[in-house]
From TrEMBL, chain A:
Region of interest (Disordered), residue spans: 600-638
Protein name as catalogued: AP complex subunit beta
One Pfam family per UniProt: B2-adapt-app_C
Family affiliation: Belongs to the adaptor complexes large subunit family.
GO CC annotations, alphabetized: clathrin adaptor complex; endomembrane system
Topology relative to the membrane: Peripheral membrane protein
Lineage: Eukaryota, Metazoa, Chordata, Craniata, Vertebrata
TrEMBL record, chain B:
Subunit structure: Adaptor protein complex 2 (AP-2) is a heterotetramer composed of two large adaptins (alpha-type subunit and beta-type subunit), a medium adaptin (mu-type subunit) and a small adaptin (sigma-type subunit).
Family: Belongs to the adaptor complexes medium subunit family.
Residues involved in a 1,2-diacyl-sn-glycero-3-phospho-(1D-myo-inositol-3,4,5-trisphosphate) binding: K347, K349, K351, K360, K362
Subcellular location: Cell membrane; Membrane, Coated pit
Function comment: Component of the adaptor complexes which link clathrin to receptors in coated vesicles. Clathrin-associated protein complexes are believed to interact with the cytoplasmic tails of membrane proteins, leading to their selection and concentration. AP50 is a subunit of the plasma membrane adaptor. The complex binds polyphosphoinositide-containing lipids.
Positions of region (Disordered): 225-244
Protein name: AP-2 complex subunit mu-A
InterPro entries attached to this UniProt entry: Adaptor_comp_med_subunit (IPR050431), AP2_Mu_C_sf (IPR036168), AP2_Mu_N (IPR043532), AP_mu_sigma_su (IPR022775), Clathrin_mu (IPR001392), Clathrin_mu_CS (IPR018240), Longin-like_dom_sf (IPR011012), MHD (IPR028565)
Keywords carried by this UniProt record: Cell membrane, Coated pit, Endocytosis, Lipid-binding, Membrane, Protein transport, Transport
Topology of the protein relative to the lipid bilayer: Peripheral membrane protein
Gene Ontology biological process terms in this record: endocytosis; intracellular protein transport; Wnt signaling pathway
GO molecular function: lipid binding
Pfam families (alphabetical): Adap_comp_sub, Clat_adaptor_s
C-alpha cells in the first residue's frame, strides 16, 4: 500500500512558466523598451511587459515613469493582467495622484461587473489607493458593495471601510458607513461578520471614546454563533473582539466562557491563544467557589501544553504568554513542569524562555528534578543559556529553602569546572544566597576566593568584593584581597568601584587597626581622583561619617540587611493585568504595553481585567467600561527591574537598604490600583505573586480556598493598606496629620417610621478601616433583640464586614453605640446619587429600610499618592471633557494648612507651585475601586481676606468629580 | 494587522514584496535585510523590533519570509499565517525555493492579494483557492454565473475547505495514525519525560458532501459508554478489542472542519472532510506509553585520552512486529582522533563531521537486544571546558501506535448521493516514529 505521499501531484512542478526571467533584465534603456512593449498591440506582449514592470518594482527599482502606459493596460478582459495593473497602481498611485484619476472610471465600471470576483477586486484595490480624489469616487461603489447580494463582495467591502477610515475618517463617518458596517455584524454569512468585526475593532481603536463596538448581549450572541462557523482567521478576529467585552455579571461571564472553551481544541494556535485570553479575562469575574471555575482552570492546562508542540516560532510566542499566565495564575500549570524541560535541539530562544518558566514553576515538590535539569543545562554550549541556567540554580536556592544546600553544592561543582563564565555567574548568585541565608554557607568562601583572578566581568567582581567585605572578619587576608583590586581602581566599572569603596570601609570598621592605610587610600581615590559624582558622594559620606562619629558609621555601614525576596523578575501587577488582556499579541511577546511600541493613537488604551463579582468594582466603570476610556487610569509604576541586580549597588546605608523590604509591599500597594484591592488581599492567588512571598505556587491555591476566613481577613486588610500608606508618607517626609474629618451623627431612621427604633449615624475612615458609627435607641415599650443589618448593592460595593454587634437586648429607652466595620467588596450597582446607600435593619419586631449618604472621602484610600511623573502623564491622558471646575468660598486657610487637612482625608498633595501670587496644589485621590481622581487647586496667597479657592478635578469617571468636590468642601470647612 | 509581507533569498535579495499598510515603507525591506538576514550575530528571536517596527520571520530552507507591522497585532496569528502561506505555496508549486518563487511570482502576488486583505488573513484553504486561482492565471473568463457564485459562496461559505460537486467512481478513504514518541531518559534509566504527539492524517476521495464521524478508543468515550451501556454504538464490532482497551488523551486539536462545540459537549468527532489529504487531528498522550526501545549507555573515561562506550538497545514490543530504520547516534567529543567500533548487528560508523558514531540497523523484531561497543581515542587538549556529553539519540519506525490509540470507526454518510457507508473502501494504518528519543549518558 504505497500511497503515503502523493503531495507532489497536481502541483505542476514541470510548469512551463519561467517567470524568473523577468528578474534578470538590468540593461540600460530598459524603461524605454518596456514603454514600447506596454503600448504593443499584442495582448501577450503587453502582459509580459507588465510582468517585467512588477518584477522591477519588487526588487525596488523605480518604474513610476511608466505610469500612464501601465494604466492604459487596465481596460482589459484578462483578469490576470488586470490584477497586475492594480498591483502597480497600489504602489505608485500616491506618487502620481493626478494620473491615478485616469483609473477611476475603470474601477467604477468594475464595481458594476456581473462577476462578483471582479466587483470585489475593484473595491478591494480602490481602497488601497490613497489618493483623496479617488476616495471621493469610492464612496458610491462602496455603498453598493456593502449591500451586494454576494457575500464575497460584502466581506471585501467590510474591510474596505477600514481602509477608507484609515485614509479619511471624517468621510467614513459622514457617509454613514459605520452604521452599515454595524449592520453587517448581523449578516447571514459568518465571514462577512468576521471581517466586519475586524474592521469595527480597528476603527474603534482609533476612536477610544466612541461607542462604536456597541457590545451588548445580543451582539455577543451573534458573534458567538458566527464563531462556530467562520474560518480560523475569522475566529481570531471574533475572539479578540470578545475579549474587550465586559460581561454584566458572573452568569453572563460563565455562559460566554462555556461557548468559547471548545475553541481550545482548534488546530490553529492563534485561535487557542485568543480563546485563552477571553477565558483568563472572564474567569476573573467568576466566584472562586463555583464548580465551573475549577473546571475551567483544569481545562486551560492541556491546550497550553499542546502549544509547545507547535513550530518553534509559535512555541516562542506561546512561552512568552505562558510566562504571563504562570505569573497570574500559577495553579494552572503547576503540575506541568516536565513539558518545559529543554530539548537538546530547541532553538535558543525557546530554551531561554523555557528556563524562565521552569524557575517560576519550581517548588518544593519538583525541586529535585528541576535541579538535575539545570545542572545538565549548565554544561551546554550556548553561553547565554548556560549563564541563565546557573543563575536559575541560585534562584531555586532562594526560592525553595529546603533545596538551598543542594543548590550551593551544585554551584560549587560548577565552579570546579573552571569555565570562566560559569564561575562568574555562580559567584554572582552565591552572593544572593548569602543575602538570603546569612551565616549558613560561609564555609564556601574559601573556594570562591580561589577564583578571584579569573573574574573579569564587573558584576562578578562586584559580587566577590561584596562577599569579601561582608565577611571580612572571617577571611584572614581580606585586606590583601581587596588591596589587589585597588591597584586598577580607575579602570574598573562604576559598579565595582562603588562596591570596593563600601567593602573597604566595612573592612576598616571590622578590623580598624590593620587597615587604616587602605581606607585612606580608597577614600582619596574615590573623592579626589574620580570624576564620577556618585562615587565621590559616597566617598565623602563615608569619610565624614568615619571622621565625625565612628559609632554611627558602624551602625550605618554594618547595619543588618533586610532579606531579599524570593520572586524576582516579576512583572509589575498593573502591567501584568494589562498584558493578560493582550494575550497572543505582540504586547504579550514583548512584555510591554502596546503604547510602548505602537505609534499614534492605536493601542494606547489600557485594557484591564474585569473584577470578580462581589469585589469593589465601581458602578461607573462597569457601566462604560466596554468602550475603554473610563477604565482605571494607567497607573504606570516604573518597572522595578531585576531586584537582584539592584541589591548589588545597594549596601550603602540604611536609607537605601530599606528599599528591598519595601518592595514586596509596594507591589501589594500597586495591586490596589487594580480595583478590588481588598479582594486581592483576601486570597486571590495573584497576591502570591506580588505580596505573598510564600513563593510556592501551591500556596496560592491554598489561599484561594479560604472563604471561611473572609470576615476576619476583611477587618485586617484595610489596616494593612493603611500601614503602607503611612510608610510612604514618612518616606516623603510628610507627617501624618490629625486624621480625617468625621461628620456629626444625623438621624437616619426616625423612631416614627420604625416602630420605635431610632437610628442615627455617621461614617468614618480610621486608619484605613471604613466604619459606620451607629447609635440605636429603643423608643418603644418592649425589648428589642436580634439585630442584623444589610446593605443594598451600591456604587462602591460597600458592605458590612461583620455582623452588627448588638450583644445585649436593647431595653426601652436604652441607647447603644455600635461601630460597624465596612468592606468595599460587596456587590456593585450604580446609585443615584452616587454616594447613596440603602440600608435594611432587622430586629425581632420587623425589618426597616432607610437610606443615607456617605461622604466620598470614605473610600479614599491611604496609598492614593501618585508619582509625579504618573500624575503628569495621567493628567494629560484624561480628556479635557472630563474636567470639572468648582469654587470653594470662605476658606481661611493657607495652602499648607489646606493640604495638611486634606491629607487627613487621603487627598494627597503631590506638588506645589507658586505662580503669580497663587499657590497651585496638585493632588491625587484614589478610590477603593482603583479609580484615580486628579485635582488642581488654586489658592490666593497674597491677600488673607481673599478666601476663594478654585478647584479643577479630572477623572476618567467624571460622575465622581462632583462628590470629590463636596468632600473638599466638607474637609476644608471643618 | 500585518502591514507588509516580504520574501527574501538567502542573500537577502527581495523576491516578493507586498505592502498592505501605509505605515510600512520600502525602507522596512532593507531594515530587515540589514538587521536580521545580514546581522553579525544570529538573531535570537523570531520577532525583531527595529525602529518601532516589528518583524516576524520564518525560514524555509534558505528562503526568508517576513511579515511586518507597526501595530499590536496578534503575534500567534501572524506566525500561523506565515506557515499557512508556506503550505499554500507548497500546494501550488512544490518546494519553496528561490527558483520556484521567481517562476511563480505573479501567482504569489495573486495569492497574497486574495488571502490577505489590508493585512487581515482571509480564506486560505487551497481547496477553495484553486477553484479560481491557478498557475495559468485566473481561470478563464467564460465562467457562467452559477460557476462564479459557486466560487464566491465556497470562499466565504461555512465549508470553505470543500467545493461542491466532487465525484468519484470509487469512494475511498485512507487513515494514517502517525505518532512520534518522545523520550528523555536519565543515564540510570529513569524516564524524565515521555510523550507521544500523534496526528491522524486522512486522505479522502469521497463524492458529494459526506458527513463523517470518527471514533477511537478515547478513554472518556469508552468510560461513558461503559456506564451508559449503549450497545448500538457503530463500529463496536469492528474493533478486535486487542491490547489496551482505551487511552487517556491529554489534549487534542482538530482541523477546522471538525465541529468543536460538538466535540466539547459530546466528545464526538464529526465533520465534512476536505477533498484529498489533510490532517484531521493532533493529539498528545503522556500516560501508559509503550516505549519501543530502551537504550542503556555506559561511558567510561580511561585517562585523559580515551573513552570507552558501550550501548545496549532493547526492543520492547510484540516479537511478531518488526521495527525499521533503526539508527542510534552516539555523540563523540570534539577532540576525537580515532574510533574503533564493534557491533553485533547492523552497521556502525564514526562520522567525524557529525561528531558521532552512527549505528544503523535495518530491521529488528520485538523483544530482542543488541549491543555496540566503541573505543574513542582523544587528542590531548588544554581546553578546560569539559565535554558536554550530549544525549544518545535514536531513530526508528514501528508498525503500531506507541500511545495505544486505535481507530474504532469512521462512518461516512452522504444522504444526497446513493452510496452508503458500506460502499466506502477504508484503509487504516499505524506508524510510530521516534521524535526526540534521547537517553542521557
Amino acid at each position: 500500500m504505497e500511497w503515503a505521499s502523493q503531495l507532489c501531484e497536481n502541483r505542476g512542478l514541470g510548469s512551463k512558466m519561467t517567470d524568473s526571467k523577468y528578474f534578470t533584465t538590468t540593461k540600460k534603456g530598459e524603461i524605454f523598451e518596456l514603454k514600447a512593449e506596454l503600448n504593443s498591440d499584442k495582448k501577450e506582449k503587453k502582459k509580459e511587459a507588465v510582468k517585467k514592470v512588477i518584477a522591477s518594482m519588487t526588487v525596488g527599482k523605480d518604474v513610476s515613469a511608466l505610469f500612464p502606459d501601465v494604466v492604459n493596460c487596465m481596460q482589459t478582459d484578462n483578469l490576470e493582467l488586470k490584477k497586475l495593473v492594480y498591483l502597480y497602481l497600489m504602489n505608485y498611485a500616491k506618487s502620481q495622484p493626478d494620473m491615478a484619476i485616469m483609473a477611476v472610471n475603470t474601477f467604477v465600471k468594475d464595481c458594476e461587473d456581473p462577476n462578483p470576483l471582479i466587483r470585489a477586486l475593484a473595491v478591494r484595490t480602490m481602497g488601497c489607493i490613497r489618493v483623496d480624489k479617488i476616495t471621493e469616487y469610492l464612496c458610491e461603489p462602496l455603498r453598493k458593495c456593502l449591500k451586494d447580494e454576494d457575500p464575497y463582495v460584502r466581506k471585501t467591502a467590510a474591510v474596505c471601510v477600514a481602509k477608507l477610515h484609515d485614509i479619511n475618517a471624517q468621510l467614513v463617518e459622514d457617509q454613514g458607513f459605520l452604521d452599515t458596517l454595524k449592520d453587517l455584524i448581523s449578516d447571514s454569512n459568518p465571514m462577512v461578520v468576521a471581517n466586519a468585526v475586524a474592521a469595527l475593532s480597528e476603527i474603534a481603536e482609533s476612536h477610544p471614546n466612541s461607542n462604536l463596538l456597541d457590545l451588548n448581549p445580543q451582539t455577543i450572541n451573534k458573534l458567538l454563533t458566527a464563531l462556530n462557523e467562520c474560518t480560523e482567521w475569522g475566529q481570531i478576529f471574533i475572539l479578540d473582539c470578545l475579549a474587550n467585552y465586559m460581561p454584566r455579571d458572573d452568569r453572563e461571564s460563565q455562559s460566554i466562557c462555556e461557548r468559547v472553551t471548545p475553541r481550545l481544541s482548534h488546530a490553529n494556535s492563534a485561535v487557542v491563544l485568543s480563546a485563552v485570553k477571553v477565558l483568563m479575562k472572564f474567569m476573573e469575574m467568576l466566584p472562586k467557589d463555583l464548580d465551573y471555575y475549577g473546571t475551567l482552570l483544569k481545562k486551560l492546562a492541556p491546550p497550553l501544553v499542546t502549544l509547545l508542540s507547535a513550530e518553534p516560532e509559535l512555541q516562542y510566542v506561546a512561552l512568552r504568554n505562558i510566562n504571563l499566565i504562570v505569573q497570574k495564575r500559577p495553579e494552572i500549570l503547576k503540575h506541568e513542569m516536565k513539558v518545559f524541560f529543554v530539548k537538546y535541539n530547541d532553538p535558543i530562544y525557546v530554551k531561554l524562555e523555557k528556563l524562565d518558566i521552569m524557575i517560576r514553576l519550581a517548588s518544593q515538590a519538583n525541586i529535585a528534578q528541576v535541579l538535575a535539569e539545570l545542572k545538565e543545562y549548565a554544561t551546554e554550549v550556548d553561553v547565554d543559556f548556560v549563564r541563565k541556567a546557573v543563575r536559575a540554580i541560585g534562584r531555586c536556592a532562594i526560592k525553595v529553602e529546603q533545596s538551598a544546600e543542594r543548590c550551593v553544592s551544585t554551584l560549587l561543582d560548577l565552579i570546579q569546572t573552571k569555565v570562566n563564565y560559569v564561575v562568574q555567574e555562580a559567584i554572582v548568585v552565591i552572593k544572593d544566597i548569602f543575602r538570603k541565608y546569612p551565616n549558613k554557607y560561609e564555609s564556601v568562601i574559601a573556594t570562591l576566593c580561589e577564583n578571584l583572578d579569573s573574574l573579569d566581568e564587573p558584576e562578578a567582581r562586584a559580587a566577590m568584593i561584596w562577599i569579601v567585605g561582608e565577611y571580612a572578619e572571617r577571611i584572614d587576608n581580606a585586606d590583601e584581597l581587596l588591596e589587589s583590586f585597588l591597584e586598577g581602581f580607575h579602570d574598573e566599572s562604576t559598579q565595582v568601584q562603588l562596591q570596593l569603596l563600601t567593602a573597604i570601609v566595612k573592612l576598616f570598621l571590622k578590623k580598624p587597626t590593620e587597615t587604616q592605610e587602605l581606607v585612606q587610600q580608597v577614600l582619596s581615590l574615590a573623592t579626589q581622583d574620580s570624576d564620577n559624582p556618585d562615587l565621590r558622594d559616597r566617598g565623602y559620606i563615608y569619610w565624614r561619617l568615619l571622621s565625625t562619629d565612628p559609632v554611627a558609621a558602624k551602625e550605618v555601614v554594618l547595619a543588618e540587611k533586610p532579606l531579599i525576596s524570593e520572586e524576582t523578575d516579576l512583572i509589575e501587577p498593573t502591567l501584568l493585568e494589562e498584558l493578560i488582556c493582550h494575550i497572543g499579541t505582540l504586547a504579550s511577546v514583548y512584555h510591554k504595553p502596546p503604547s510602548a511600541f505602537v505609534e499614534g493613537s492605536r493601542g494606547v488604551q489600557h485594557k484591564r481585567i474585569p473584577a470578580r463579582a462581589g469585589s469593589g468594582e465601581s458602578a461607573e466603570s462597569s457601566d462604560v467600561g466596554q468602550s475603554g476610556p473610563s477604565e482605571a487610569p494607567p497607573a504606570v509604576i516604573p518597572s522595578q527591574g531585576d531586584l537582584l541586580g539592584d541589591l548589588l549597588n545597594l549596601d550603602l546605608a540604611p536609607p537605601t537598604a530599606t528599599v528591598p523590604s519595601v518592595q514586596p509591599s509596594m507591589q501589594m500597594g500597586a495591586m490596589d490600583l487594580l480595583g478590588g484591592g481588598l479582594d486581592s488581599l483576601m486570597g486571590d492567588e495573584s497576591d502570591t505573586l506580588g505580596g505573598d512571598i510564600g513563593g510556592s505556587p501551591s500556596m496560592g491555591a491554598g489561599l484561594g480556598v479560604a472563604p471561611a476566613a473572609m470576615p476576619t481577613a476583611l477587618g485586617i486588610a484595610p489596616a494593612v493598606g493603611g500601614g503602607l500608606g503611612d510608610l510612604f508618607d514618612l518616606g516623603g517626609g510628610v507627617g501624618m496629620p490629625t486624621g480625617s474629618y468625621v461628620a456629626p451623627k444625623t438621624v437616619w431612621l426616625p423612631a416614627m417610621k420604625a416602630k420605635g427604633l431610632e437610628i442615627s449615624g455617621t461614617f468614618a475612615r480610621r486608619g484605613g478601616i471604613i466604619q459606620m458609627d451607629l447609635t440605636l435607641t429603643n423608643k418603644a415599650m418592649s425589648v428589642m433583640t436580634d439585630f442584623a443589618i444589610q446593605f443594598n448593592r451600591n456604587s462602591f460595593g460597600l458592605a458590612p464586614a461583620g455582623p452588627l454587634q448588638v450583644l445585649t437586648p436593647l431595653s426601652p429607652n436604652q441607647t447603644i453605640d455600635v461601630s460597624l466595620p465596612l468592606s468595599t467588596s460587596g456587590p456593585v450597582m450604580k446609585m443615584e446619587p452616587l454616594n447613596n446607600l440603602q440600608v435594611a435593619v432587622k430586629n425581632n419586631i420587623d425589618v426597616f429600610y432607610f437610606s443615607c449618604q456617605y461622604p466620598l472621602s470614605l473610600i479614599f484610600v491611604e496609598d492614593g499618592k501618585m508619582e509625579r511623573q504618573v500624575f503628569l502623564a495621567t493628567w494629560k491622558d484624561i480628556p479635557n471633557d472630563n474636567e470639572a471646575q468648582f469654587q470653594i468660598k470662605d476658606i481661611h486657610l493657607n495652602s499648607d494648612a489646606a493640604s495638611n487637612k486634606l491629607q487627613g482625608s487621603n487627598i494627597f498633595t503631590i506638588a506645589k507651585r507658586t505662580v503669580e501670587g497663587q499657590d497651585m496644589l496638585y493632588q491625587s485621590v484614589k478610590l477603593t475601586n482603583g479609580i484615580w481622581v486628579l485635582a488642581e487647586m488654586r489658592i490666593q496667597t497674597g491677600n488673607p481676606n481673599y478666601t476663594e479657592m478654585e478647584l479643577s478635578i479630572k477623572c476618567r469617571a467624571p460622575e465622581v468629580c462632583q462628590f470629590v468636590f463636596l468632600c473638599y468642601e466638607l474637609v476644608l470647612k471643618n | 494587522m500585518i502591514g507588509g509581507l516580504f520574501i527574501y533569498n538567502h542573500k537577502g535579495e527581495v523576491l516578493i514584496s507586498r505592502v498592505y499598510r501605509d505605515d510600512i515603507g520600502r525602507n522596512a525591506v532593507d531594515a530587515f535585510r540589514v538587521n536580521v538576514i545580514h546581522a553579525r550575530q544570529q538573531v535570537r528571536s523570531p520577532v525583531t523590533n527595529i525602529a518601532r517596527t516589528s518583524f516576524f520571520h520564518v525560514k524555509r530552507s534558505n528562503i526568508w519570509l517576513a511579515a511586518v507591522t507597526k501595530q499590536n497585532v496578534n503575534a500567534a496569528m501572524v506566525f500561523e499565517f506565515l506557515y499557512k502561506m508556506c503550505d499554500v505555496m507548497t500546494a501550488y508549486f512544490g518546494k519553496i525555493s528561490e527558483e520556484n518563487i521567481k517562476n511563480n511570482f505573479v501567482l504569489i502576488y495573486e495569492l497574497l492579494d486574495e488571502i490577505l486583505d489590508f493585512g487581515y488573513p482571509q480564506n486560505s484553504e487551497t481547496g477553495a483557492l484553486k477553484t479560481f486561482i491557478t498557475q495559468q492565471g485566473i481561470k478563464g473568463q467564460p465562467q457562467t454565473k452559477e460557476e462564479q457564485s459557486q466560487i464566491t459562496s465556497q470562499v466565504t461559505g461555512q465549508i470553505g475547505w470543500r467545493r461542491e460537486g466532487i465525484k468519484y467512481r470509487r469512494n475511498e478513504l485512507f487513515l494514517d495514525v502517525l505518532e512520534s514518541v518522545n523520550l528523555l531518559m536519565s543515564p540510570q534509566g529513569q524516564v524524565l519525560s515521555a510523550h507521544v504527539s500523534g496526528r491522524v492524517v486522512m486522505k479522502s476521495y469521497l463524492s458529494g458532501m459526506p458527513e463523517c464521524k470518527f471514533g477511537m478508543n478515547d478513554k472518556i468515550v469508552i468510560d461513558k459508554q461503559g456506564k451508559g451501556g449503549t450497545t448500538d454504538e457503530p463500529g463496536k464490532s469492528e474493533l478486535g478489542g486487542s491490547g489496551k482497551q482505551s487511552i487517556a488523551i491529554d489534549d487534542c486539536t482538530f482541523h477546522q472542519c471538525v465541529r468543536l462545540s460538538k466535540f466539547d459537549s459530546e466528545r464526538s468527532i464529526s465533520f465534512i472532510p476536505p477533498d484529498g489529504e489533510y490532517e484531521l487531528m493532533r493529539y498528545r498522550t503522556t500516560k501508559d506509553i509503550i516505549l519501543p526501545f530502551r537504550v542503556i549507555p555506559l561511558v567510561r573515561e580511561v585517562g585523559r585520552t580515551k573513552l570507552e562506550v558501550k550501548v545496549v538497545i532493547k526492543s520492547n514490543f510484540k516479537p511478531s512486529l518488526l521495527a525499521q530504520k533503526i539508527e542510534v547516534r552516539i555523540p563523540t567529543p570534539l577532540n576525537t582522533s580515532g574510533v574503533q567500533v564493534i557491533c553485533m548487528k547492523g552497521k556502525a560508523k564514526y562520522k567525524a563531521s557529525e561528531n558521532a558514531i552512527v549505528w544503523k540497523i535495518k530491521r529488528m523484531a520485538g523483544m530482542k537486544e543488541s549491543q555496540i561497543s566503541a573505543e574513542i581515542e582523544l587528542l590531548p587538549t588544554n581546553d578546560k571546558k569539559k565535554w558536554a556529553r550530549p544525549p544518545i539519540s535514536m531513530n526508528f519506525e514501528v508498525p503500531f501506535a506507541p500511545s495505544g490509540l486505535k481507530v474504532r470507526y469512521l462512518k461516512v454518510f452522504e444522504s444526497k448521493l446513493n452510496y452508503s457507508d458500506h460502499d466506502v473502501i477504508k484503509w487504516v494504518r499505524y506508524i510510530g516514529r521516534s521524535g526526540i528519543y534521547e537517553t542521557r549518558c
